[in-house]
Amino acid sequence: MRLPSWLPVLLLAFSANVNAQAVRSVPTWPAHACGQRAPDESPRPAYSDAGVLRSWRAPVDVHVARGLDAPAALAVLADAERVVDALARLGVGLPLPDGDRGGTPSFDVYVRPATGTASEGRARAEWLAAGEAWDRATSFGEIAVGSDAFSRTRAVAQAVAEGCVYAAKADAPPAFVRSMGAALMHRALDVPLDADDVRAFQADPAAGWWWDGTRSAAAQRGGAIVLDAMAERWDEGGATFLRGLLEAPVQRTPPGWPLLWDEPDVFDVLKRVTRDEPRGVWGALLFAASARSLEGTAGGTRDVGGVRDGSLVAAPLRSVGWEQLPTWSVATGIAPTGSASVEISLLHAPRTGSVGVWVHASPYTRWMASVLRIGADGRLVGTLDSELIDTGEWATSVDAIEDAAKLVVVVVSAGDETLEPDGEPVRDGWVGINVGRR
What we know:
Layout: H1 7-18, E1 52-54, E2 60-64, H2 70-90, E3 107-113, E4 120-125, E5 139-145, H3 149-168, H4 174-189, H5 195-202, H6 217-222, H7 224-234, H8 240-247, H9 266-273, H10 280-291, E6 318-321, E7 327-334, E8 339-345, E9 355-361, E10 366-374, E11 380-385, E12 393-398, E13 406-415, E14 429-437
Parallel strand pairs: 2-3, 3-5, 6-8
Antiparallel strand pairs: 1-2, 4-5, 7-14, 8-13, 9-12, 9-14, 10-11, 10-13
């Protein structure tokens, strides 16, 4: 008699559960978030015909599609347990219980075979509609499992971490969900950000890092490089900075209250976090953009996101030498939080030379700019930073260039006075960067 294809999976799941050291408890609603529970809308994959692996010690279940062998399914379960443990140690609220929609209240991960060696993972909210009264949502993970073990672990971690994001704030734009999920994965597992994701994000710095839903999933995950640079500066341990961005914007209306209390958006939270910084939240984002313009280092002190590949530098609008000055470069279609840069090599500059910089930007939009002096070793020597530019132009001069091998002019769009991160970006910002010898 031919045995059913799902029997080996169930036998392995049974043996894994018998050997578990502790029986899991039923997950409860996190006490630190007070939003209202959201209704479910997204349909779930029909992956139940090959079997379900249920962890006995962590609130996670793995639903297996036909065609995925039992060792791969068990590896996904082990990865999910490891990720849940790591996120819990950071103090991150885990995905919300979903009743019995997956058979138990646990976070459900639906896995299927991938077409290649690489794995892909994401979470899907069962309710997601910006502007509604709801804040938190249940979710489930979807993972295509390839043969590469490290890629599989990343995919599982990404899906679970995104489920944590939806559990705290369900109406965040997709790009923020992906980037925050990757940032949480990076901190929880102590692994570098994916180099291909960072390259995809760096390919279009002007698109901004918050809103752009048209970007690929890789580019959205690569936005974690911005969050990582900021967390490196303000984190107090235990991913407090990232957790604050997740938890602080949650709706705090008490149950039964007749009127909804206003909720802060993520930029309100960033303003509070950076209130002691000389240039506030936009200075923080200028710092992050400047770090991405250096060769694998953030401020000359550490590798960006743990990625050590110098080819991940955000490409400048133009790279010119001293002998080519003056130069005028224009970037268009810049969304708020988007950036542009120009690189000037000082290889043939005289030691007594000086450089003048003039930035002219579109009106009714705010900007910040910085001139980075970079030494021969690729590390930051010093900066000249602007305040918030609301007049459309800013100028400065760099008189001490003898210790620098090149200059990089970085400009970041701060949007208009009514910046709303939950809305669509106004991608008509432009900036002109003029650099000349003095």
